[in-house]
Amino acid sequence: MAKRISLREFQQSLSERLVSARRGEGGHTLLGVESGADDLPGGSHWLIDLADSGEVVPLPQLTPAPLTKPWFSGIANIRGVLYSVVDFAAWRGGAPTPINAQSRLLLIGARHGINSALLVRRALGLRPQLQMHASGEATTAGDRDAPKQISSGDTAPWLGGRFTDAQDQAWTQLRIPALLADPNYLDIAL
After folding, report:
1. Tell me, what's the pLDDT at 27?
2. Contact 174/158 with Cβ under 8 angstroms?
3. Is the distance from CB of 54 to CB of 40 less than 8 angstroms?
4. What's residue 145's pLDDT?
5. What is the mean pLDDT of the chain?
6. Are the beta carbons of 127 and 30 closer than 8 angstroms?
7. What integer is the mean pLDDT of 27-52?
8. Which is higher by pLDDT, 67 or 15?
């Protein structure tokens, strides 16, 4: 059974780990989130590079936007800044993400000049890349740290490398810049 800690202790620990990761201490660290079912492209467990991830926030009140695709959840006001919210599971063709106490928004686009957020089932915390093992797919030529192809059938540019952790859980790296450049992601109008 996992040790129970207070929310304040968890937030302090997470903040310290984020600062440490941004300084490059302890190797490359990735943010883990859960979204959708295993049968969707990329599976349900995702890794996001901290440099691209932005902030994870509890789900605020969303303002619906008329005449948008069903996977566009609406607009969120985060400390006075408006973010477009995309249900990541629904965008990939799955069922809508359940709205509950574990639901989170991953603010992904501010660094890239786009105020965009992904609605995910839950945040799973930081994952040291050193504890992840590549699933055997070949890396892109020329760069050992470049994202790997999932399979010949999954050609979406936002799908990165496939990894497994010590518990044999499969993870897929989400390439945020490629996602933000995907015309399907940007086209929210009906």
Report:
1. 57
2. yes
3. no
4. 39
5. 83
6. yes
7. 86
8. 67
| Residue keyed to tokens 């574990």 | 102
Separation CA 26–CA 128 (nearest Å): 8
- 3-class DSSP state for residue 78? strand
Q: Do residues 169 and 45 touch, judged by C-beta distance below 8 A?
A: yes
Q: How many residues does the chain have?
A: 190
Strand pairing class (170-174; 45-49)? parallel
Q: Which of 136, 190, 143, 140 is nearest to 164 (CA)?
A: 136
CATH number for the domain running over 8-186: 2.40.50.180
Residue 176 has pLDDT above 90, yes or no: yes
Q: What's the CA gap between 105 and 118, in Å, rounded?
A: 5
> In the prediction, which pLDDT does 26 show?
52
- Give which of 176, 172, 101, 98 is closest to 134, Cα–Cα: 172
Whether the CB-CB separation of 187 and 166 falls below 8 Å is answered with no
